[in-house]
Design brief:
Helix content is about 20%, strand content about 30%. It is built from four helices and nine strands. A hairpin with a 4-residue loop joins β8 and β9. It is globular, with a radius of gyration of 23 Å. About 25% of the residues are buried.
Amino acid sequence: MTAIAVNPEALKDTVAAALGGKVRRIDVWQDEVTVEVAAADYLAAAQILRDAPGCRFEQLIDLCGVDYSAYGDGVWEGQRFAVVSHLLSVSLNQRVRLKVFAADDDFPVVDSVTGIWRAANWYEREAFDLYGIVFEGHDDLRRILTDYGFIGHPFRKDFPLSGHVEMRYDAEQQRVVYQPVSIEPREITPRIIREDNYGGLN
């Protein structure tokens, strides 16, 4: 027997009741519930969302970092880095989005949820690698997509498109070497040329 999908407003009320004072904000947009909690409440909120009878979000299906520094054409006011998780309850046929902002923009740290959902392991490593978000309690937090000697976090809005270093093979040393980027940044604006009688139109 298949469970009937829950009404988003009813799910919002259920999640809000389960989390109580841990809710900083909860919204329904396009039939999806998003709940935001403070960094200090993140781990406890995740545990409640997994275990509370009306929630039972057994699966974490996605987790990612977000850099809000250029959000809304740079008029964003608030913490810079967020972690967004998408949770699924197979038993109750419902989904929720859990959002938490790191308290410190210079050194973003949030708790790891790998003890609640093991699936968070590689997702948290990716968010650490690409955004520099540190997950407290993660037992193997290291880069997963970039090289071991990579400098910086490439998904941050202030990371240069050309990077900081470039890699090449040096025939004399017979090994790969790293050196500062020598590419000059430039902006390319496409030129539109309209020819007379283009397409047979005058």
